[in-house]
Write a structure and sequence with these properties.
The chain has helices at about 15-35, 50-60, 75-85, 135-150, 165-180, 190-200, 210-220, 240-245, 365-370, 405-415, 440-450; strands at about 5-10, 15, 40-45, 65-70, 90, 95-100, 120, 130-135, 155-160, 180-185, 205-210, 230, 250-260, 265, 280-285, 290-295, 300-305, 305, 315, 335-340, 345-350, 355-360, 360-365, 380-390, 390-400, 425. The protein has about 450 residues and is α/β, with parallel strands linked by helices. The chain folds into 2 domains: about 1-350, 3-Layer(aba) Sandwich (Rossmann fold), CATH 3.40.50; about 360-450, ANL, C-terminal domain (GMP Synthetase, Chain A, domain 3, 2-Layer Sandwich). The strands form 6 sheets. It has a 12-stranded mixed β-sheet with strand order 2-1-10-9-11-12-13-14-15-21-20-17, sandwiched between helices. The radius of gyration is 22 Å and the shape is globular. One of its GO terms (molecular function) is acid-thiol ligase activity. Pfam families: AMP-binding, AMP-binding_C.
């Protein structure tokens, strides 16, 4: 993005803007000496986070792109992703070596109109892996609007505990670089370490997904006085978890967005316990210049359509041509269902692919999970829909908490309709998470499939 870059604080050491800018310039020069040119793309592991940050900003100086991937990814899968996105180069931080992605890689200049700045692998709205492409203009558009909404300045300190191979983590880097803010980097999320550093280093901003927030609250920590914004997104925040956080003084702001939109496109103000009964489905107002097609909240629910300057170029292809995944007007349609209130606030009501039919009734898995989180003795829950030859689907609740399955079944019969009631319950100590911090829905579904007798752990 051709910005001076953040003041980094990593592993307890502070690296000032001048010293860091010198390292960025040195790496950019080394890359160009190897033959890397503007418009080309480099695949880089996301750990160590400091090295990836240095590489991203060096590539920004050149006008080249980066494709961060999860460290430890199977080499065959990595090469398949490189082929899908037409990647020219691979960077190995252990040996500090830049090498062509394959023996057949053509190291040639790429036209600016085909240039991708950031590529991120995502499951996408279709449910199968996609690689999202963003250009520098879109990244800057997102960072500038988010910084203005959240008050990110050169005096801010953002603790980044989200992996940089996910848009939630990568976006923090671009925001910090644009503002010249301090950036404290973590290689993944460790709740005790995050809580300790929030308290010790004057952190003002942090981004979390709800399971991360729950882990921090389980440690009993109150929010430090320096903390101004706790941005919570990635998946729905339950009302009980929001209440716990607010009671402990955490300045929660909800956000909505996805990889295809370059992270958030809507953000709430600071939540308060008395705000409308704490309706956590209201994710806030749209960022400037975001267009959205959504029904009024009094009308039937429909899928959203989104357009704006931070929207992706499209899904990757070997030629990295833009447009795949967007319609002719530049609109993107995720699987999310939502509506707009009369005050212009966006309400998210789940996903179209979370709706199943049971006995002729449309049932929302998201709504059932939200309801169960209100039950006493439930700290985490996900709903899995299996097939049923008579009713169409059979619901299983996978949860963590003190309640046993009999107590939970009785609660469901009182608070849910018949088709919404899970027919089986699996209690775990903790629900499994992805490296993004979100619930691992595929693994949870596999646990249900593999369970010989429901209720066993």
């Amino acid at each position: 993005m051709n910005d001076p870059g953040p003041v980094l604080i990593t592993d307890g050491d502070r690296l000032g803007a001048d010293a860091f800018a010198h390292q960025v310039a040195e790496r950019a020069a080394a890359f160009m000496a190897c033959g890397l040119r503007p418009g080309q793309v480099v695949m880089v592991p996301d750990s160590p986070a400091f090295d990836l940050t240095l590489t991203i900003l060096a590539l920004g100086r050149i006008g080249a792109g980066v494709f961060p991937y999860r460290s430890g990814l199977d080499p065959a899968e990595r090469l398949a992703l490189a082929d899908l996105a037409g990647v020219e180069w691979l960077w190995n931080p252990d040996s500090a070596s830049l090498m062509p992605a394959s023996a057949t890689t053509q190291v040639t200049d790429v036209p600016p109109e085909s240039s991708a700045a950031l590529l991120i692998k995502t499951s996408g709205s279709s449910g199968h892996p996609q690689i999202v492409m963003h250009d520098y203009a879109g990244l800057r558009a997102s960072a500038s609007r988010v910084n203005a909404r959240l008050g990110v300045t050169a005096e801010s300190t953002w603790l980044c505990c989200l992996r940089l191979s996910h848009i939630g983590g990568a976006a923090i880097l671009y925001r910090a670089a644009l503002a010249g803010a301090r950036l404290r980097l973590h290689d993944g999320f460790d709740a005790p370490t995050v809580l300790r550093e929030l308290e010790a280093y004057g952190v003002t901003h942090v981004s979390l997904v709800p399971p991360m927030l729950a882990r921090l609250l389980d440690l009993g920590g109150r929010a430090p006085p320096s903390l101004r914004v706790v941005l919570v997104g990635g998946q729905a925040l339950s009302r009980p978890l929001a209440k716990r956080a607010l009671a402990a003084g955490w300045p929660i702001q909800l956000t909505y967005g996805m990889t295809e939109t370059g992270s958030q496109i809507a953000t709430s103000g600071a939540l308060a316990a008395e705000d409308g009964g704490l309706d956590t489905s209201l994710v806030g107002t749209l960022l400037p210049d975001v267009d959205i097609e959504a029904p009024d909240c009094d009308a039937p629910t429909a899928r959203l359509r989104i357009r704006g300057p931070m929207l992706m170029l499209g899904y990757a292809n070997p030629e990295r041509q833009p447009g795949q995944g967007l319609d002719e007007g530049g609109w993107f349609e995720p699987a999310d269902l939502g509506c707009l209130t009369g005050e212009g606030r966006l309400r998210i009501l789940g996903r179209a692919d979370d709706i199943c039919v049971i006995g002729g009734t449309n049932v929302s898995l998201t709504r059932i999970a939200h309801a169960l989180q209100e039950a006493s003795g439930v700290s985490e829950v996900q709903i899995v829909a299996g097939s049923d030859p008579v009713w169409g689907h059979r619901l299983v609740a996978v949860y963590a908490g003190a309640s046993d399955d009999t107590e939970l079944a009785n609660w469901c019969r009182v608070h849910l309709s018949g088709p919404e009631c899970p027919r089986a319950f699996i209690r775990l100590k903790r629900l499994p998470l992805l490296d993004s911090g979100k619930y691992d829905r595929a693994r949870i579904a596999a646990l249900v499939r593999d369970q010989k007798r429901f209720g066993e752990n």
